[in-house]
């Protein structure tokens, strides 16, 4: 009588782990946690908050760690050598992964956030640098940032006087979104004094759904 399947499963799993570990050592790649599970990779190691989980992994395996998020490889750099990734070798690390979210939310990977390095990316970066992020443009839009910060402070003061609990993460998210939309479209979609209430409601729903997909 043939042994049941569950007898072979531990052997197959052990062989898989050994093979992964053996070939990892043969290749010139950064260290990684030994247990790289099929399909999910190292996702089982991640808990909220994400930065805390990555810090624990870095403390154990070193400042440069290679993780697998599902079938996608992710390089975690948490030390001064990160400057080499972001400055000296920024072109090498400039490409974006072709995720499904980038296809549907980034107009088939053509937006600045999702497009890979190349002529199109350089053109978008030039436009954003001139029209939004230049010193002259930022100075012109200085009043929007000041007004939004003042509005946020007034809201916090009111909540304090009413002894209401405040979610700081939500407050700063709404502040950031109002600043960004004020600079781009001259509108605010969070908090008080919204000119387009229905438009603001739809915008908030879109942002919520988008963040859920990403």
Automatic annotation (TrEMBL):
Membrane topology: Single-pass membrane protein
Signal peptide: none
GO cellular component: a single term: membrane
Coiled coil: none
Domain of life: Eukaryota
Short name of one Pfam family: p450
Protein's UniProt name: Cytochrome
Native species: Sesamum latifolium
